[in-house]
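Researcher: Going back to the complex we discussed earlier. I've cleaned up the inputs and rechecked each line, so this should be the final set. Can you rerun the prediction on the complete assembly and write out the structure?
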Amino acid sequence: MTFSGFKVVKEALTGHKGWRPLWRDPDPKPAYDIVIVGGGGHGLATAFYLAQTFGELKVAVLEKGWLGSGNIGRNTTIIRSNYLLPGNEPFYEFSMKLWENLEQATNFNSMVSQRGIINLIHTDGQRDAYRRRGNAMLLAGADARLLGRDELRQMVPFLNFDNPRFPIKGGLMQARAGTARHDGVVWGYARGADQRGVDIIQNCEVTGFRIEGGAVQGVETSRGYIGAKKVGVAVAGNSSRVMAMAGMRLPIESHALQAFVSEGLKPTIPGVITFGAGHFYVSQSDKGGLVFGGDIDGYNSYAQRGNLPVVEDVIEGGMALMPMIGRARLLRAWGGVMDMSMDGSPIIDRTGIDGLYFNGGWCYGGFKATPASGYAFAHLLATDRPHETATAYRFDRFARGYVIDEKGVGAQPNLH
Amino acid sequence: MTRLSKGGLIDRDARLRFSFNGTEYSGYQGDTLASALLANGVQLMGRSFKYHRPRGVFAAGSEEPNAMVTLRDGARAEPNTRATMTELYDGLSARSQNHIGSLERDLLAVNDLLSPFLAAGFYYKTFMWPKAFWEKLYEPAIRRAAGLGALSMQADPDEYDKGFLHCDLLVIGGGAAGLSAALTAGRAGAQVILADEDFALGGRLLAERDRLDGAEARDWVAITRAELDSLPNVRVMPRTTVFGVYDHGIYGAVERVADHLPTPGDKVRQTLWRITAKRAVLAAGATERHIPFADNDRPGIMLAGAMRAYANRWAVTPLKHANDPIAIFTNGDDGHRTAMDLIAHGARVLGVIDSRADAPCFGQYEVFPGATVTGTKGRQSLYAIEITRNGQSEWHSVGALGVSGGWNPNVHLASHHRGRPVWDDALLAFVPGPNGPQGLIPAGAAAGKGGVADALADGMQAAITALLEIDIAAKPIPLPQAENAPAAQEAFWHVPGKRRAWVDFQNDVTVKDIVLAHKENMRPVEHLKRWTTLGMATDQGKTSNISALAVMAELTGKTIPQTGTTIFRPPYTGVSLSVLGGGDTGPHFRPKRLTPTHHWAEAQGAEFVEVGPWMRAQYFPQPGETHWRESVDREVLAVRSGVGLCDVTTLGKIDVQGADAGEFLNRVYANMMGTLKVGMVRYGLMLREDGHCYDDGTCARLAEDHYVVTTTTANAGLVYRQMEFFRQCVWPDLDVQLISTTDAWAQIAVAGPQSRTLLQRIVDDADISNEAFPFMACRELTICGGLRARLFRISFSGELAYEVAVPARYGHALMQRLMEKGADLGVTPYGTEALGVLRIEKGHAAGAELNGQTTAQMLGLGRMVSVKKDSVGAIMSRREGLAGDKRRLVGLKPVNAQKPVAAGAHLFAKDASRDMANDQGWVTSACYSPHLDSHIALGFLEDGDTRMGEVITAANPLEGQEVTVEVVSAHFVDPEGGRLRD
Amino acid sequence: MLIPHPLLGLRDAQEFTYLGDASLMHRPDPAREDAVAAFADYVFLRDNPAGVHRELWFHEAGDRSWLVVTRDTTTHEILGAELASDVKLGGVQ
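Model: Rerun complete. Updated structure for the full complex:
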């Protein structure tokens, strides 16, 4: 079934009788060529591109709960490619280009909305750093603009320009950045993968790897053993737990990140805005809620919830930046588990075990990477070579000294 | 007017004026906005989110999905305020929201006609063609139509506060269970906090006609309240919502201190309390659910329990015309209570439509057993319902309909730690599960024990149990005589039919949408919610989630608990961002740290700049200077030719003492410190354990067992923390003690060829001649006639220079004294801008170069990483990626001296194309050098150390600039270092 | 969160800063033959357990002691706290 405005009208006029399941609920087969562990955004995108681009026909996605129940189900939905370092920027720009054609690729409206992002500048040093970054973005084929204070003020007059603790001196803008509807991304990839023959199996938890002679043979699951020539793990948040079953220790800690949404409001904030003198980023969803976040809680956690001090810290930042939001109410707060890596950058790589591949360490920036992560992981799984934009995301970069540390804070995950 | 002639907890002597959508009304003290509007015959209060259906008030508490208004005007306008939770005050002004045109004639009601096209998830299936139309056309239209109320776009003028409270027992909810819990604990002498979101204590006791000890329940509430108020160990907090349970017994609560007043006056509007409670009793009551049936969303249809509350507490019926009949639709005994209460108040009751074939009757009213409501009429005000029984339907005129589908315990807080509620087959509801937050004991209706007698006993027992766990013995208290009302019900979840039956009112989710979600395999409860937006409205599904689960369970043939549970996340109800932000807005967002000479600099007219938490003097404009560069150039030249003064107190200072101080510093610094002679200073470089540069500074040895270490301003706290980590966690066997003395010493840089001359005028008797006190010397001495001081001969500027430290309280005086004594030398204060220019001229690395990504080799300091000893980061700095890094710090001088170079520009070989593959580095710092009369810059460049003299390009495509620069030594001034040593 | 400081009693976690796994106390011997590999593991790899975790907290806004706190990362329940220097001097754990 192809989705379209025509189809919606036709169904409306005929009592919505013709709609079909967005994906099947197949029972697992005894074996697949490729098994993806994790039915989140990255796992489903991987399956989609394996089927769509790389012609893999025998692929399964195993999800322990419901599709999209991890961090793609709860995040601030920002997409952007405004990175500094050469190990990152081409990858995220590749992701941005995939976002720009996502709906056409999946025939599903994931509401990619390029309303722009502005990173605010509060000091001269920050302007210099953003200039370096903006130039790096342009050199990688992305878009970037350095905004002066006056221009910025015209665009976002509601910011606290007149009475701030830290003056707003300008901003680095990426106009092509924006947001996407996070659940829509899950569903678009899932439906697209299912239509191309991928078996998506929910409520199927991987409980172990069967490894013989240094090579993976398949996975033990809550629904029985499933054989696989190759296994790709994409379970960010739980990476250490899952890879421990294969005997691996990772350069990753799990941390709690909270995200917040306000009650619905009439249009207030056009694009995405990030505060440069506190940790606060905000956009407004199409439904009208202010969607915002800030720092991680800062301690190892798998609890999927956070604590009050960070709630206060994030909202203090918001109130300092845009005091006109004060009379709005916080509607909901979530806590997700982040794969915080040792340099703040992800890993898409083979492991020391033949046929076992790993995708994780997304810190709290995994959402924007979803398309490229899926594509690059599919590329690696299908061809055994890294995608050209993901060559730096290796395990051995830590031991060899090629970290990709955008923030320059070293091997302390809670600072990335 | 539909106010009953008597009864209610309202003060009929206190008449309050208010306006809704510009029309003036009046109500009484004790009213909510919702009860006062109903009393004035106003049924239509809002519009739904998606279809813009006309809506009236549906509930009487914080679960209200429909009656959302924008309260107050101007900068105090508060969108999405529930009329049911708004305490009436004189002069209140509110308006309805989410409509174009008037509330009665909302143009967007056209969406309702288009509803077949707007079924669940429709937007995921369309708006994809043409591609460009999404952002340009479709999405802006959707955004304009979406949202509920509007912000004023002005800063909130009110004040807010935050505070901490501690107690033995926090009681959440002041109904029957909460009051008995609080009284039990209060009498036992425990420290108790009783919080309730309502402005009056009593909970449902105020909404029912239950008798306690043969008298009205409100009498017992009043007596109990009085006793609690009299106990010094009990704090009663009405208007306080406990919104979240956090770790280790910390609860978030908001007290609405002044929301019931026209303006807060000298009060804060709200206070955020973090309550640390050893134990807590969750006595949050229960929320009634409805029964979806065709066209069940009309104004005039509300929860039967709410209808009871309006009648009993506020003496109001929800009718447009006072004498219209009222019907009740129920699946259990509870609905009958409403009928009886209404009759007792003299209202006309059509009867009770009870889905049970064997429906009971408790009084003088008609019962329609085995019947359901299958249709309604009245777009803006209900006037008729269709009752169907055994396939026979007939229409009846009514002015209001109460709906009762059973009660859901308010399990919300009990699931804030993600413990799941469990299904209770007898109650037909989820109750708190066993894995709730530690120390939180549910009681009363929140635990499924909603009968008054049960709730009173359960609250008391919960308090006794809770206190016993913390070794406080509480005795049972005499409880009033009470009865549990009959509460039999059947599992009847919705009325099947062809027309739309609303499940989630605010978000317009109907049974049909759930059927569609089922058909499309959006069956897991989270998919159902996300696909249909069910439960995502401002009431967070309080009135809709369980009904939706039941419908889905019916479709899948599973039980409700098999279909799913929903857990709840904080906050319990919406919390204003202002109070969570605590009012620390504007300049109060973060504290300011001021240097010891701040006020002196202020008096000199200095401009200040934010440097982390510090405010530092940026430059000192003099009369006649119109541009900052004029001031900075003058300050720089003054240092290079005479003497300048700069407050450098913000640099971190750490005292390191002990027999092993030298060994300790050997381990934390890359270079050798143990060999430093007493009375000398050494430049020090610290690495992180991963081998990258962390911080730099100076290390002075004042005695064999006493060093003073300086750090950069930004890293002052971090370096101290790291040193303590190594001292306590890695090498606790070393005899060394650390203390941060950043705030204890004021430090002033005295720089320039005349600096010694100036210092000699304040030094008491020490010999600071070049011979006696050479470059990199340090010593403790006295100045200005006995003032204890430390003098360091170190230089950031490349000139003969010193830093002099005195106890912080003398910093201001020292600056004045130096200015005074140096007047004839032309002594000049300089700020951070000149400091920056001086260090760039000298090629010293600072924050832009030490950004956490650089190596010692990149800075040209590779040889400082001693191979004779181990130190933090030494091993990892030898990994191939670091050791092989060919980028080096260089100076860059524009071929056209007057052409500025931008920090952040990228470096390219002259003819290379401007792309990533050819990117060879970047400009880290840049300035105009008045000394050289040229713009200059520092940068990292591939193989930079071997490219001196090469002409390359600094490209800044972001701002359309390209500058041709020559690669030169980073030391623009005095590369041999002769000036330092003179 | 509240941290039971062994000297000061229950203190709000906001007074502390967090570092991470207490294995960071066990810096490898720089003289060992495979020091580079040992340091790479020490600096970059973590067990990251879902469950009981021994971890380092610094009482930055307090007495400036480093603590080893034992905490369950799935529930945040704190099972104990010790002075890091005591732990270290008392032997490798």
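Model: Worth noting: Residues 452-469 of chain B form the longest helix (18 residues).
Researcher: Good, that matches what I expected from the previous run.
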